[in-house]
Design brief:
The structure is a single chain. Helix 4 packs antiparallel against helix 6. With about 200 residues, the protein is of the alpha+beta class. The strands form two sheets. A seven-stranded antiparallel beta sheet has the order 1-6-5-4-7-9-8, sandwiched between helices. A two-stranded antiparallel ribbon has the order 2-3. It has seven helices and nine strands, in the order H-H-E-H-H-E-E-E-E-E-H-E-H-E-H-E. About 35% of the residues lie in helices and about 20% in strands.
Length: about 200
């Protein structure tokens, strides 16, 4: 089953995401995040070396759920705190083959662009290219009633820490980075002025 999921992951990303359409993620395996909190906090580190081993779709699903997934379907609450429940942080999954948007409500990866923005994410730190996946975190400030860039920065920190702790529990490595060519990313992905580009997390083994 794991092999099949890995094949599905490679197929979705390497065969042209825009052509393949939305990818339904497996249900997140919350049991894989059962590492004691104290141990996760003690062993969490920032890593800048990765190998090329692919991250299977089941593991990616669990990681994305930990970042901003739906923790209470009845209320729509997510795993990360969010100022005035803005839920403004969007997670984009970036590979050399393109960019997908994580839709936590549907638990899917939605093809967003077939542009390769990895060079824009690297910003001189070549180790980023070794990670098979990079998560790009942005704050969507399009809701005029809740627009607050300061809250967006704070919410990004919550999501980033969730990613760190989930990676620790899942045996993955990551580092939070503000370095990137924001202008190039904004142009490539056609982001509006309401989108604040916040952080990126290369993910790998």
């Amino acid at each position: 089953m794991k092999k099949l999921l890995s094949i599905c992951f490679c197929f979705a990303f390497c065969s042209g995401m825009m052509a393949q359409g939305t990818v339904q993620l497996p249900q997140p395996d919350v049991a894989k995040l059962s590492m004691p909190l104290g141990e996760a906090l003690k062993t969490r580190r920032s890593y800048r070396e990765y190998n090329k081993k692919e991250i299977d779709l089941a593991t990616l699903s669990t990681l994305l759920w930990a970042a901003t997934g739906i923790s209470d379907p009845a209320t729509g609450k997510i795993t990360a705190p969010s100022a005035i429940n803005m839920q403004d942080i969007k997670v984009y999954v970036c590979t050399e083959k393109g960019v997908c948007l994580y839709d936590q409500k549907a638990n899917t990866l939605v093809p967003f662009s077939d542009k390769n923005i990895i060079d824009a994410l690297v910003a001189g730190q070549q180790f980023v290219k070794d990670a098979p996946v990079t998560l790009l975190l942005v704050s969507d400030q399009s809701n005029a009633r809740r627009k607050n860039a300061h809250f967006g920065d704070i919410d990004t920190g919550y999501v980033s820490q969730n990613i760190y702790l989930a990676c620790t529990a899942l045996g993955l490595k990551t580092v939070a980075r503000a370095m990137m060519d924001q202008n190039a990313i904004r142009e490539a992905l056609h982001f509006s002025e309401d989108i604040i580009i916040e952080l990126n997390h290369p993910i790998g083994y």
